[in-house]
Design a protein that fits this description.
The structure holds 2 protein chains of 2 kinds. Chain A is α/β, with parallel strands linked by helices. Helices cover 35% and strands 26% of the residues of chain A. Chain A is globular, with a radius of gyration of 18 Å. Chain A starts with 9 loop residues before the first strand and ends in a 5-residue tail after the last helix. Chain B is mostly helical. Chain B has a single domain, classed as MetI-like (MetI-like fold, Orthogonal Bundle). Classes of the chains: A alpha/beta, B mainly alpha.
Chain lengths: 259, 283
């Protein structure tokens, strides 16, 4: 089922994806269907290509001039690597949250949330205000910042900054949200909030999250993909991956025997 | 081995610390000396007439260097019009675009240009503009200062843009913001204070240039009315006065030097104030 091309519930269908940096293949011939409105966790030891895989999903790897990809990725049937499709358009539909929270330091909370809309030409103050509240509520940050939307974004705590970055990504209303270890730099309390948030977001969004934290993958995701040395070793429902994996390598990794 | 000799180690430690402190103070002393001299020698000659009137001939009391002060501002304005856009955009290219090899050559060329003696710039622009136009001009003076600014502004712009963390660029691009808007609205905005500082340092640097203006702006005893006429400038006027044998003129030279220094200083302080961080108190 992992690679059923007729899977109508798939938001992203990845076929034979390989990503190279120079001559080295960081991702090797990966095919996977990312289910819509569900959380898919990507796990694997450092250097297994999971971040590279994630970045290929919205063409962020193209920022590296040495990077090159092969294969196909379709977003709800649209080829995101088609010659006629610009990376900017792909990234509006597939947002991304990074490991290190990175709110823009020159901007207020409000300006950070609306930056994607404003720089794409939206001027209507009313819509911007609505979208700000909506995004901050979805990111579970509204109650904490509603009285100081014009304060500096960098005045927020680390966990709040990361939720602000999630709100900023949500404000442009993407269809898919990619998260690259979004909680790895946060304390356990802030991490728990982010995890709750991820679970609540899948109602509206397709989420792909790279994580080093097994418990996080087990708690927050519906599907789990295990990457090792650039290959997709195993992919399936999270409960299955963590309780009865088909592959020995997967079992060794999720039980902490290596990695 | 016996116990280590702590007293010798402590002495070396204290000695090196003192040495670095002394060197740091040595940086400030020349500035204080320059200020002290300029104020004691020049302050008495500064009055309203100094800023508004033309120079008086030898022997006549009073007069000022109003034309040179205005001339310096006109030259700096022209230099900024040439040097700032080219320098900043060139710096943006070096930091955000271009290939490693090409950028290495551009950087190398800019560094060489930064080391070219200013008199050489003067001669080059004399050949390029003064000779074909059959005369010294304010325009040529502005061009030479502007050309000198380009590599300075370019390198400082590149350096401050490189200090902007890559995470901000990625965050903006991941929002579907185009590369150009990311550069203008996110990267440049984050580094704006540094860019402005670089521009001002370049302006302050060329504001005091004398040699290149001798071949281009030439100097003028009167007010200049056209950019195609020779124009007075403070460094030129100070030079003229300082090399003369007259005490009156020496005093004017001191006063001019003081005003020039205060001009450079006030540009710096004023812009630091204007570009102070909106959110600074909260960081």
């Amino acid at each position: 089922m992992a690679t059923d091309p007729n899977n109508s519930a798939a938001a992203l269908t990845v076929r034979n994806l390989s990503v190279f940096f120079g001559k080295n293949a960081a991702v090797k011939n990966v095919s996977i269907d990312i289910t819509a409105k569900a959380v898919t966790a990507i796990i694997g030891p450092s250097g297994c290509g999971k971040s590279t895989f994630l970045r290929a999903l919205n063409r962020m790897h193209e920022l590296n001039p040495d990077a090159r990809m092969e294969g196909q990725i379709h977003l709800f049937g649209d080829d995101i690597y088609s010659r006629t499709v610009e990376s900017v358009a792909v990234r509006r539909r597939i947002g991304m949250v990074f490991q290190k929270s990175n709110p823009f330091p020159t901007m207020s909370i409000f300006e950070n949330v609306t930056v994607g809309l404003r720089l794409n030409g939206l001027r209507d103050r009313k819509i911007l205000a609505e979208r700000t509240e909506q995004s901050l509520r979805m990111a579970a940050l509204w109650d904490e910042v509603k009285d100081r939307l014009n304060a500096a974004a960098i005045s927020l705590s680390g966990g709040q900054q990361q939720r602000l970055c999630i709100a900023r990504a949500l404000a442009v209303q993407p269809e898919v949200l990619l998260m690259d270890e979004p909680a790895s730099a946060l304390d356990p309390l802030a991490t728990a909030k982010i995890e709750d948030l991820i679970v609540s977001l899948k109602k509206d969004y397709t989420i792909v999250i790279v994580t080093h934290n097994m418990q996080q993958a087990a708690r927050a995701s519906d599907f789990t993909a295990f990457f090792y040395l650039g290959e997709l070793v195993e992919f399936g429902p999270t409960t299955k991956i963590f309780t009865s994996p088909a592959q020995k390598r997967t079992e060794d990794y999720v039980t902490g025997r290596f990695g | 081995m016996t116990a280590p000799n702590h007293s010798w180690r402590n002495f070396k430690n204290a000695f090196m610390q003192t040495l670095t402190f002394v060197c740091a103070i040595l940086v400030i002393i020349p500035l204080l000396l320059v200020f002290y001299h300029l104020i004691t020698q020049g302050f008495t000659s500064i009055n309203w007439a100094f800023f508004t009137q033309l120079p008086k001939p030898v022997g006549e009391a009073g007069g000022g260097m109003g034309n040179a002060i205005v001339g310096t501002f006109i030259l700096l304005a022209q230099a900024a019009v040439i040097g700032v856009p080219v320098g900043v955009l060139g710096g943006v290219f070096l930091s955000e675009y271009g290939g490693t090899k090409l950028n290495w050559w551009i950087r190398f060329a800019a560094d060489i240009l930064n080391g070219v003696p200013s008199i050489t710039w003067g001669i080059v622009v004399w050949g390029l503009l003064v000779v074909p136009m059959h005369g010294f001009s304010a325009l040529a003076g502005g061009v030479v200062l502007g050309l000198m600014m380009i590599p300075l502004v370019m390198r400082t712009t590149e350096e401050v843009l490189q200090l902007v963390p890559g995470g901000y660029r990625e965050a903006a691009l991941a929002l579907g913001i185009s590369k150009w808007k990311t550069i203008v609205q996110i990267v440049i905005r984050t580094a704006l204070k540094g860019i402005v500082t670089g521009v001002l340092l370049a302006l302050a640097r060329v504001a005091g240039e004398t040699a290149p203006l001798m071949f281009t702006a030439l100097g003028n005893e009167n007010w200049a009315h056209k950019l195609t006429e020779p124009i007075a400038a403070m460094p030129l006027q100070i030079f003229e006065y300082a090399k003369s044998p007259y005490d009156d003129w020496h005093r004017q030279a001191w006063a001019g030097a003081l005003v020039l220094l205060l001009l450079v200083l006030s540009i710096n302080i004023g812009v630091r104030f204007l570009t102070r961080d909106r959110f600074q108190q909260k960081v």
